[in-house]
Amino acid sequence: MSKELTIAVLPGDGIGPEVIEQAIKVLDGVSDKYGHNFIYRKSLVGAAAIDQTGEPLPPDTLENCMTADAVLLGSIGDHRFEDPTLSVRPEQGLLALRKSLDIYTNIRPVKAYDRLLGLSPLKDNLIKNVDFTIFRELTGGIYFGQHGRKEEGKFAYDICSYYNHEIERIAKLAFEEARKRKNYVCLVDKANVLESSRLWRETVQQLHKETYSDVRFDALYIDHAAMQLITNPLRFDVILTSNMFGDIISDEGSVIAGSLGLLPSASIGDTHCLFEPVHGSYPEAAGKDIANPIASILSVSMLLEHFDMNEEAKSIQQAVEYCMAKSILTEDCNPDVDYTCSQLGDVIQALVAEEEGINTKGLKEGSSSII
Ligand code: NAD
Ligand code: IPM
Ligand code: MN
């Protein structure tokens, strides 16, 4: 059955516009093949929005996102805004958007692809078959507690605070996900030191006992978990954690996959959803057509899954794995035969649309049938 979706598209800064262009190509491939109608509504966010309007999240961008079925975001951030004394920064736009949409669960799957095992500095036997997912709380914690300065700017604070209901709602989703996977949730916290982490433990332990006792559950301190992630990543299935710990361990997880350019994410709330790569704006690569678009393309696959377009989502995953098998990859994944960001987008679009006579042989020379 053909579907119609309105998607707010926020390309953002740095490599954001390049990788989002590829993700849209792939969505177009899906709509061609399956007869869906995706309506794209573009808006500014981050540094691009500050440049045009003075604000990182202009009201019409927020309105666009609030009224769309889904949001597709590239990345925000720009070296020009790194001065710590500035009061307006691109990152504020992303944080305000997440908070306004109340997308409290950020899902970040991490996989070791057989074809890419050699990319990771970790030994093949440690990472082969790794397949876990991080459930990162996204709208609370130290990111959204009180921040400020006192004593003429000589004293700064960022408060990490959580309500039990904020913990419970993401924990439920993590346990539900575990039931569909390997039935195991590992809570990652710092309950030996932090009161907010002790509330996480208490709340999740109780929920486990009352509702999810069929799911295997344990907890690790974040320092220990960071070590286990690279010494024994096969032990994980669903990792449940707070905002900042989740941010940090997801980039660590990318070392298992082989590149930060491979990790997608979905951010889900009760009424809104947003899809974005885990990586940032990688300003050094902006405009060079070298960034890996796979993280954004797989984020689109998560979007389709969210709307029950499972066959469509699968076709994207299969196209990505085909490219891995054929070494049709950007330079971060294949320094010998590097394809450009847009070439990879073209190939994946063509594979998804199952265009006749795909011939990727002459791709580098520009003589293939798809570019
Ligand atoms: P980054 O994720 O932009 O880049 C870190 C490194 O990861 C790069 O040097 C590169 O080696 C690799 N990388 C990232 N994306 C890649 C891709 N698509 N293909 C190939 N390699 C890729 O992190 P950073 O350099 O710490 O931050 C740059 C800016 O991005 C900052 O302004 C930061 O605030 C912002 N940021 C935004 C988001 C977001 O929009 N969600 C996420 C992280 C960082
Ligand atoms: C991410 C990023 C953001 C975060 C920044 C840019 C605000 O690092 O999405 O992982 O810390 O959440
Ligand atoms: Mn991050």
Our count of helices gives 12
The helix-and-strand class reads alpha/beta
Please give the alpha-carbon distance between the first and last residues: 30 Å
- Biggest β-sheet description: 10 strands, mixed
Q: Which CATH class of the largest domain is shown?
A: Alpha Beta
Mean pLDDT metric: 95
Small-molecule binders here are: nicotinamide-adenine-dinucleotide, 3-isopropylmalic acid, manganese (II) ion
Identify low-pLDDT runs: none
Quaternary state, please? single chain
CATH architecture name of the largest domain = 3-Layer(aba) Sandwich
Principal-axes shape call: globular
Q: What percentage of the residues does DSSP assign to strands (E)?
A: 15-25%
Tally of DSSP β-strands: 12
How many separate domains make up the residues?
Answer: 2
Explained architecture:
This protein has 371 residues and is an alpha/beta fold. The protein has two domains: 1-109 and 262-371, Isopropylmalate Dehydrogenase; 121-257, Isopropylmalate Dehydrogenase (3-Layer(aba) Sandwich). 41% of the residues lie in helices and 18% in strands. The protein has twelve helices and twelve strands. A ten-stranded mixed β-sheet has the order 2-1-3-12-11-4-5-10-8-9, sandwiched between helices. It has a two-stranded antiparallel ribbon with strand order 6-7. Helix 11 (310-325) packs across helix 12. The protein is globular and about 55 Å long. The mean pLDDT is 95.
